[in-house]
Each structure stands twice: as structure tokens, then as C-alpha cells.
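Lecture 7 notes: from sequence to structure.
We start with the chain below.
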Amino acid sequence: MAILSDLGTEILVPACAIVGIVFSVVQWILVSRVKLSPERHSLSNSSKNGTAEYLIEEEEGLNDHSVVQKCAEIQNAISEGEFSIADLSEHLFPLYRISVCWNFMVAFAILIFVFLGSVEGFSTKSQPCLYNKGEMCKPALANAIFSTISFLLGGLTSLLSGFLGMKIATYANARTTLEARKGVGKAFITAFRSGAVMGFLLAANGLLVLYIAINLFEIYYGDDWEGLYEAITGYGLGGSSMALFGRVGGGIYTKAADVGADLVGKVERGIPEDDPRNPAVIADNVGDNVGDIAGMGADLFGSYAESSCAALVVASISSFGINHEMTAMFYPLIISSIGILVCLITTLFATDFFEIKAVKEIEPALKKQLIISTILMTAGIAFVSWIALPSSFTIFNFGSQKVVKNWQLFLCVGVGLWAGLIIGFVTEYYTSNTYSPVQDVADSCRTGAATNVIFGLALGYKSVIIPIFAIAVSIFVSFSFAAMYGIAVAALGMLSTIATGLAIDAYGPISDNAGGIAEMAGMSHRIRERTDALDAAGNTTAAIGKGFAIGSAALVSLALFGAFVSRAAISTVDVLTPKVFIGLLVGAMLPYWFSAMTMKSVGSAALKMVEEVRRQFNTIPGLMEGMPSLITPTCVKISTDASIKEMIPPGALVMLTPLIVGTLLGVETLAGVLAGSLVSGVQGGMCPSSALVGSANCHLCFQHCGAWDNAKKYIEAGASEHAKALGPKGSDPHKAAVIGDTIGDPLKDTSGPSLNILIKLMAVESLVFAPFCCTWWPAFQIWK
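Predicted C-alpha cells for the same chain:
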């Protein structure tokens, strides 16, 4: 019997979610205090973060009013004007507009209802429970209805998370630029608080919507927890479906603009990054928010929803569900609830307890966020495992019940949590320009772009070793202690500090846009140096966030795979069986096929962008002198049209494969496909040369492509004698670094991140449609 009462659980979970929402609102209010209007500052005013609170413009005799006014104009151009990222009818949100995502959601919801409802011929009669023998469960038609509703809830929550994330990002970027005039500490706090708004809103909204859905569904299902939590899996499917659109569409949008702006502007014309003379610069800044804010938010929300659903499904057929122990059943939700409180305390360390006074303190401050949150969360997990779990219980393990102790489940969650920290630190080592790997890549630029690419690829392949061992150890430990439920809660452990992880991740694009605004507004080079330092740290932390994403995706996918195998009543996945081995081969091939689609899409869109930017430079007189207005809407339209058009084929590949394979070839072949895509995915998602290789290539993708990006910034900053010898901007080594960065961009921001969604989405979709595949396969089977 758990120490925490059911009533206490019913209060704790929503209360923590509400606290998270309130905290995000408070952070929003604090960011809004930075006004986009000129203010007088006294040289005698002291600042807590970043030396005296005087403005660089005052020190250098520049016009403060004109600088602020220009920042406000650029902010409006990005967030409210003709390049609106909040206007659903304009450029950014065609990714989420009615004609794309809404139509998909409605169509797929109908598909879920028809397929699952047909399992029992749309019968309204109760049926024998699959696991709880001797009991009667609700009809398949009810499962179809409630799975459809939970799918829509997951999709809507994912869309809302992406929208709110981009809204705060565009709200904060100019404010971060203005705060950089006072000091790097002020700018850091503004950017980090803005990221925290997204992190806490997503974590709290995801938890609250899931909790409310479970309680509303329980009104109908009553004691039929087996049917209730099977229907809830649609929540994870909805979240990952929208994440796929956000990642693929957003990645195509941002990288088409980024590649076009860099190749023509920096390499051919020799103008700085984010130079206002570059026609693609606005599209590039908008794209940062599409792919890196909305895409990452939706991705991690999908991982959170799927890991929660996988754990709840397994728990519902274990002693928790059979004995109707609500507090123990809600153990995954309680972990997430405590995680919000832990992340709240951790955030205060960055914004209130410590102050940043120099550029060199930025990256350590972000690393401390990971360390502090992990240590506090370890204590939180131990406390939750003590009060929310019986001392001994049973967990479903492929047809049998495995006896588990509460301390063993604590270790399962803890090993996932610490594996995430290890992945984060390894990623940071291989992508930060503070350490030798990035400096070696930068040094390789002395002999041209070819050696830069070779060094980067080698670094990426090498960087995958430790993260894969960390994931492998966490899988072994968690499965040994608590079977597939242990793996599901290990994934939740890795995601338990999702609010902090997202805050760190969103901080990067906000800082990047702040630097772009400083450049376009013609602000002092010292301000640009500060924003570049923020951005360089942001590149590293973005890679850390993507490392968390692929690590959690591996654990989540395996947990969902286990739930699918159990639901489909597959006793053994025998690789020596031809139907399973064929599935393995096809599954291992899918990440290649998917990556080929997304890479070609970025390349095609980037080609159009390059041609348009060249056309404007060649045909508009005085453009290089900054005299005429740019025709930027054309560049924005190229990215928008490409993202909408090109994201459909990869999405169709992912969404249709489980249905076709499961219906025509059977659930055993589908199990092989899932296993093949998972293994190919988790190695390749870690390496972008291998982003052409698979979802495991995702993580390496982040690392060597992040290394290419930071190698370029290392040369541009010229902070050491070695860096100065490779520079300055426009030198041959710098051009080689820009080419490497451009090659890596679509790998780390489009193909790589999308691959972890591929393996998760196929697994959760297979779980949702398992009843249909088991029922209808005998009628369509190609082999027996």
C-alpha cells in the first residue's frame, strides 16, 4: 500500500501543472518589462548582472532612440508584420494552418475510428478482457471513439505548444538584443527566461491535459483500466504526428533560408551573417523559430506523451491496474509533476541566485542547469518512489507477472535520468568551441572545405560511442529490474527535467535571432560580440537538447515496441523467421529513405533560394550599398511553399508503413520493421553523415554538424591566438568553415531531428492499430 493517498495524488498532479503554468506566466511578465522604447539610463546605476547598467550607445556617443526604434521595427517585421510568425494566414503558420495539419488531423482521426471500430464490427456489446481473464471490458467501438478523442487532444496540445513557443521566442528576441547593451548577464537572463516560458508551458500543459483526459475517460470506463489506458495511447500518437510536421516542415523552412543566405551572402558576396542587405535574412530569422522552437518543442512533447502512455499501458495490465491502485498507477505522472517543481528551483539558479558577469560564464551556467536539475531530480524520484509505490508489486512481462521492489523502480528512473546527463555532457564536449574537437575541426579549415568536412564526419562518428553505451546500460538495467515498464519509466526519467531542457534549447534560437537583430539594426560591434557569445553557447545547448531527444526517443520506442508486442500477443520476435527478417531489413532501410526525401527537399528549396538571392543582388541597383528596400517576401514564400509541399511525402511514408505492413504482412513482420528502424535509427540518428544513414544518425548529426557550426564561430570570434591565425571573416579558412556549416545545417536541423520522430511515431501508431492488424490480417495476409 502506497503512503501517498489517492486524494493526495489527485491534488498533487494538477497542482504541480498549475504551478508550472503560473511560473511561466511570471517569467513572461518579467521579460515584458524590457520595453521596446527608448529609456534614459544613468551611468551611476548599478546592475546585478553584467557590470554597470549604462548603454554602449551612450558610451560610444550613438543615438539610443534610433537604435531602439530600429530594433522595434525589425521585431515587428518578424512577429507581427508581413513576415508574421503569429499570423496563421501568412508565412510561418502555413505549417500549422487548416489546409495542412487540421485536414490531416481530421482525416487520420476518421481513419482511427473506422479501423478500430471495425475490429468488432462496430458492436456496442462488452467483450472479454484480453489480459484480465474472467472480466468484461468495454466494446471495441468505445476504444475507437476514445482513441480518436485522445489523438485529437494530443495533436491540439502539440500545436498549442509550438505556437506558444514561437510566440514567446519572437517576443523576446529584440528584447534580448536591447538588454545586451547593458551587459551579457542581462541579455542572458532575458533569453533564458523566455526559453523557460516555453519549457514550463509545454511540460505543464502536456501533464495537465493528459491528467484531465484520463479522469474524463474514467467516467465511462469505470473499472476497465485495461481499455481506458489503451485508448489513452492515442494521445501520444497525436503529439508525435504534429511533431513530425513541425520537425520536417520547420526544418525544410529554416534550412532553405539559412543555406541560401549563407552561400550567397557570406561566401559569394562576403557580407556578414544577418546583414540587412541579404534578401533571405528575414526568412532565416523566422526559420530559426520554426524549426528550433516549434519543432523541438513538439518533438519532446511527443516523447513525453508517448513514454507516459507506454508506462500507463503496461501498468494497467500489471498489479497497479488489476488491483486499481490509483496512486501507483499514476507514478509516471507524479514523476513529471515533481520534475516541474525541480525545474522551477533549477531555473532560479540561473536567473536569481547567481549572476553572469562575463562571456566565459555563459556556457558553465547552462551546464550547471543540467547538473543541478539532475541531482535534485534524483532526490525527488527517490521520495516519489517511497511514497507513491507499494514496497512490492508485479509488472507485466510478456505473458507473466514479474515481482518488483519500489527501490528497483527508483533505479530504473534514475538510470534514465543520469544517462540523459551523460549524453548531454558528451554532446557538449564534441560541439563546444571550448574543447579540442571543435578547435581541431576549425584548424582543418586551413586546407579547405574538404578537410573540414572529413574532420567533421570523423568527429561525428566518434562521438556516438559513449551515448550508445549510456543508452544500452540504461536499457539493460531498467529491463532487468522491471521489464518494459522499467524502460518506459527510464525514458520518463530522461524527460523528467524537460522544462529545463527546453528552456536551454529555446535559449539558443532566441540568442541567434538577437544577434541577427543587432546586425540588422546597425548596433555596436561590441553588442554583436555579446550576442555571438550567447549564440555560440546556444548552439552547444541546442545539440545537448537534440541529444536528449534522440536518447529519450530510443527508450520510448523500445517501450512502445514492448507494449505493441504484448498487445499483439506475439510470444517471440524470432529473427530467423523469414517474415521477421524481411521486416528487419525493410525497417533498417526506412531511415535512409526518409532522410533522402528530407535532404532532397532542403536541397531543392535551397537551390531556389540561392537563385532568388543572386537575382536580387544582380538586378537591384545599389543593393550592396543598402540603398533600396529588399524584396524579402519572395524569399519567405520560397521557404513556406517548400515546407508545406515537401513535408507530405516523408509524413506519408512514416504514417502509412505500419498500416500497410501490419495489414498485409502481419504483426510479426511489423515487429521486425519496428525493431529494424529502431536499431538503424538509434545509431544513425547520432550522425548526420549518416543522417543519410538513419535515426541513430540523428545524434551524431547534431554533434559533427554542431561542431562545424561552432568551428565557424570559433574562427569568427578570434578569441585565441589560434583562432586569430585562422581568421578574420572572409579569409579562406573562414569560407571553408562556412561551407562545412552549410553542409551540416540540413543534417542537424532537418533530417537528423526528424528521424527520432520516425522511430517513435511508427511504434506508437503500431500500438494504437494493433487490434485492427490482429483482426484483419488473416483476411488480407500475403503469407501464412
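Points to note: The CA atoms of residues 408 and 481 lie 6 Å apart. Residues 41-63, 80-98, 688-700 have pLDDT under 50 and may be disordered.
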